[in-house]
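Researcher: Here's my situation. A collaborator sent me these components and asked whether they could plausibly form a single complex. I don't have experimental data yet, so a predicted model of the whole assembly would be a useful starting point for our discussion.
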Amino acid sequence: GESVGLHLPTLSVQEGDNSIINCAYSNSASDYFIWYKQESGKGPQFIIDIRSNMDKRQGQRVTVLLNKTVKHLSLQIAATQPGDSAVYFCAGHPGNDMRFGAGTRLTVKP
Amino acid sequence: DAGVIQSPRHEVTEMGQEVTLRCKPISGHDYLFWYRQTMMRGLELLIYFNNNVPIDDSGMPEDRFSAKMPNASFSTLKIQPSEPRDSAVYFCASSLGGFSSPLHFGNGTRLTVT
C-alpha cells in the first residue's frame, strides 16, 4: 500500500530564511498530493496541492515540487516567518484514500 | 464560511462510557471523513461518506465504533463502550469531490478515556 514519509521530523530555521520540507511516497499510482499545516490545537490546514501531471506549483510564499521519477515531494517556504511555525504534513492520494506522512515540526527562530 | 465544526472540543470520560462526537461539514461538500490522530500512528482514516452514504469503514478499529450521517449537514462518531486506548484527537473533514480535492478539517475533539 501507499506510505508517505518525511525525511526529517524537525526543522529549525532563522526568520527570513527559506525553508524546505521533504516528503517521499511509495505508490507510483498516487496522482494527487497536498501539503497541510497544523498548528497546536487545530486541525490540518490546506496549504497547496499538486497533481501528478505537474512538477511545480507556486502559491503565496510557498512552492511545491514533485519529482515522480524518485517519488519525492517538497514544500518550499520563502522568507519564513514566526507564524509559519507548525507541523507540516504531506498527503498522497493512491486511490480511495488520503495517506498522511508523519509530519515535520518547523520551528522559526527570531 | 464557518468551516467544519466539531463538538465537543474536549471530552473526558471513564472507561466503559459511551462517547458521541459531532460534526457539521462545510455546506455543499459531498464528502465527509472521520480521522483519528495519535502520536504513535499519526492521522488515520476511520470512515468516509459520500452524499450521506458510508463508502468505506475499513478503518474503523472495532465494532465499538460506529458513525452515522443522517443528513448532509450532520455526522456523528460513537464509541461504545470507550476504552483508554481510544484516547486521541478525532477530526472530521469534508471535501467537494472526495480525495481528489483538498480536505477541509475541523479543529478536532480531544478524547481522553480514563
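Model: Some features of this prediction you could bring to your collaborator: The longest strand of chain B covers residues 42-50. The mean pLDDT of chain B is 95.
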